[in-house]
TrEMBL record, chains A, B, C, D:
PANTHER family registered for this protein in UniProt: HTH-TYPE TRANSCRIPTIONAL REGULATOR BETI, HTH-TYPE TRANSCRIPTIONAL REGULATOR RUTR
Keywords, sorted A to Z: DNA-binding, Transcription, Transcription regulation
DNA-binding annotation, residue ranges on this chain: 27-46
Gene3D superfamilies on file: Tetracycline Repressor, domain 2
Name of the protein in question: AcrR family transcriptional regulator
The keyword Hydrolase appears for this protein: no
Organism encoding this protein: Kribbella italica
Family annotation (Pfam families): TetR_C_43, TetR_N
GO MF term list: DNA-binding transcription factor activity; transcription cis-regulatory region binding
DNA sequence: TATGAATGAGCGTTCATTCAT
DNA sequence: TATGAATGAACGCTCATTCAT
């Protein structure tokens, strides 16, 4: 039965990610319906709606953290940094609420999410530091504003629709600003 | 009696701007209370909650449009452009939901808001065009990505808290990206 | 409209008295249905279920207090005391939950009910004191145990069904205990 | 395996007595947790919650019956009667819900409980008859009102808090009523 | 026209009971 | 047989909207 339960937990999380991706105001019932389980099952796995939201958020932040760590482990520092940046913005564009997750990473939504947010920010900070040391990102840029740009670009990409060319041109401008001044 | 009605409309709109600025999830009752009118009066002026939200949005977009037009009418084109950009981001930081309004300007929230959004974007486009002609903004940047950057910067400033220094450094990076390449 | 509202409030209270008289575990919906109003109307008048229960309780305690005061104002002290005692027990028998109200009178169910309970107990205390002074009730009985007997008799009458003759014989035994020893 | 099952049954009953003694509104889950078994095990032994409640009630009534029988078998009839009366009231005060059990004994809660209630009442009737024959209780008191007084005193003791001195004085008054008139 | 009372659909959550292991 | 997961009906409560004054 543990296998069943784990299965259901996964399905609920997946459903929640989709549903809350569309709108944070969605109801727990919607999640249950999409997951194909009864509503009480959702509450068995996540005792309150807030905890469910937090679990989704945590998952996203962990995925981002993992991606950052993978990229940090290998390859050219500059490529790794810009690659991660673009990837985050791209996913935000298609998944809508990931940007909200990024924004929430700094605030206070429960211990797990806070921890995951912290780790993600640390991994991104590492990426940035290495890119700066290698000369791919201007040395005078501090973490705070680079992170703000990451969040902003994600939201900007989401908000204005998903034209891929526009998004790439937006990033091109942004990256020009991030590269060292000659 | 028409003066009375217009008065009430104003007060409701002002109250709504404040209330929804704090939280989009606020209730219509809260608006009525802050405006000092009965709830039925709110619904007489704005038959649905969506229409009330739209009216607030429209108001904000019109203000932005007016600001853009004023700046376009006088002074150095580059200064006008960057001034407007900074001002929008600053207000987004303090008023929280204006970014949502900006984002929504492109989508489909009723005729009035769409119209106001269009006019605001045209006024901002004018500002951009003049700044490009004067050499203050790179010529190869198209409206779409610059607008996306405006929206993104507003949201980024809102999401990550309102540290003024960080916000300014973020904008400095962004403006470096927007200036012509040497 | 105030007349309408007051009317509804009355009807809700009456319905609640009946419904909760049968079972404290009854739902707020049941009250609304019996009162013939929508459920939101119940909550408009009594913001929480506890407040509704408290209002019913307060009403009952006030009625009891008024009865005690009326009886204290006129007639033979002994008659007044035993009359009140019998009346309370009789009503408890027919209305079931009034005994619970009596029991709760000493505990802590909100300010209004506590106040009403206090006043009722004071009025009953007055009745007792006068009866003792007149020699109709033994002088060595203290308020606490007499009140406990009142509560107990009410509950006993309720619990064992409502046979009137049994109830009267039960009270006769009890009154024999309360009268001065020869 | 039958020994296991009987063991579990006992533990569940013990847990249920404790849990429902504290609050009738307690959940079946609470019982299972305190008993240290899964919830399904509770339902295997007691197919519905009502049946579980009835089993607890039956147990209590049987204990009362046994006490009455023991007291009837030996010693002074008057002492036995008043001893039993006081003991029931004392336990009601400390165990809260036993009064409800007593009250329910007359009503219609399933065959087992009805039978146990009947037997308890018969044993108490025996106690009463012997006390009356010995002159310790007035001869004109009939079973019905004496039983009502037992129930009432139990509830009264429970409801008004458990001050031991008050309880004893209350019983003293009551016993004065029950003793033969000189 | 302005008001506040009334409404019911919907929300988050709990719980007795059933099912699958 | 014992378990814990799954279920859906029900609860207390809120809110956008309508009605009656």
């Amino acid at each position: 039965m543990r296998a069943d339960a784990r299965d259901n937990r996964e399905r609920i999380l997946t459903a929640a990610e989709q549903v809350f991706g569309r709108s944070t105001a969605a109801s727990t019932d919607d999640v249950a319906k999409l997951a194909g389980v009864g509503i009480a099952t959702v509450f068995r796995h996540f005792p309150t709606k807030v905890e469910l939201l937090e679990a989704v958020l945590t998952l996203r932040l962990q995925r981002l953290r993992d991606t950052a760590r993978e990229l940090a482990g290998a390859g050219d520092p500059g490529t790794a940094f810009y690659e991660f940046f673009s990837q985050v913005v791209a996913e935000a564009g298609s998944k809508l609420a990931i940007a909200e997750a990024l924004g929430a990473a700094g605030s206070a939504p429960g211990e797990h999410a806070r921890q995951a947010g912290l780790e993600m920010r640390q991994a991104f900070g590492e990426l940035l530091a290495r890119a700066q040391r290698s000369g791919a990102v201007r040395a005078d840029a501090q973490f705070a504003e680079v992170y703000a740009l990451l969040v902003g670009a994600s939201r900007g990409a989401t908000a204005t629709g998903l034209d891929l060319e526009v998004r790439d041109r937006m990033l091109a401008v942004l990256y020009d600003g991030l590269r060292p001044r000659r």
